[in-house]
Amino acid sequence: MTKWIQREAVYLWYYLDIQFRQIAPYWVLGIVLGSAVSVFGKRYIHGAFARIGQKRMGWLGVIPASLLGIASPLCMYGTIPIAASFSEQGIKDDYLAAFMMSSILLNPQLIFYSTALGQTAVIIRCVSCFFCGCVAGWLIRLFYCKKGVSFFNFTGFHEGEGRDTDPNMFIRFLKNIGRNIKATGPMFLLGILLTALYQIHVPADFVSNLFGKNNGFGVLMAATIGVPLYMCGGGTIPLLQEWLWEGMSMGSAAAFMITGPATKITNLGAMKIVLGWKRFLLYFLYVILFSWITGMVVNLIC
What we know:
Elements: H1 2-54, H2 62-71, H3 76-88, H4 93-105, H5 108-114, H6 119-143, H7 169-201, H8 206-210, H9 216-229, H10 233-245, H11 250-262, H12 265-301
Helix pairs in contact: 1-2, 1-5, 1-7, 2-4, 2-6, 3-4, 4-6, 6-11, 6-12, 7-10, 9-11, 9-12, 11-12
C-alpha cells in the first residue's frame, strides 16, 4: 500500500509539473492583459456600445454589439447592471442580447488564456462566440422587438460603483490583477490537478473514441458535458488541451467552449433573474442547439 501511494504521488507530481509549466504562462498573460483591458479600456468599450445603441443601424448594429460584448472584461453579474443602465438609455433588446450573449461566452482574459489551445482553437472560439451573440440578437429582433414586449426584465438592477477606483492608475491595475488571481487561481489549480489525474488514470483512446472527428454524437456529448463540467476558463483550458492532444475533434471542443461558459451555474443564475422561466428555457435550448450546429460545421471544415 505504501509503495502504491508513493508511486501515485510521483506520477501526480510529474504530471502536475508538466501541466503547470505548459499552462501557467498563458494564465499569467491572460490575467495581466485582461486586467489592462478592464482598468484602461472598459470605459471606452461601454461608451462605444452606448453610442452604437443610439444610432439607427438596424440589423447591422448587432454585429458591433456582439464584438463589444467580447471585448468587455466584466463577468455576467457585472454585465447585467451595465445592460440595465443601457436599457434605461433606450438601447434595444436585440443589441443588448448580442452584447450579453457574447460577453457570457468570451472576454479578453479568456482569449489570451485560450492561446494555450493553439491558433486554430482561438480563432474558432472567437468566431463562434461572435456569431452566437449575433444570432441571439437577430432572433430577439425578429421575434420580440416588433411586438413592443421587452425580452429582459432589469427591474431592481442598477449600475453600481466599480471597484477600480484608486486614483493611481498603476495601483488600480495591480489591485485588479490581484482580484483576478484570487478569482481564477483556485479553479486554475483545480483544472491542472484534474488533468493530471486524468492523464494517470484514463486510457489514452477514451477521448478519441468519445469525441472523435465527424461524430455527431461526440459533438452532442461535448455540448452536453459542458453544462455540468465547466468551472471557469481557468479550470477547463488544461482539460481541453489534453483532450485535443488525445483526439478530441475541434468541433467537439468548439461545442464545449460555447455550452460551458453559457451554462456555468453562476451565469445561469444571472440569466434566470433577468429572463424568467419561459425565456430562460429558450436561452438554454438556444445554447445547446447553437453549440451542436457549430461543432458539426467546424468538423466539416477542419
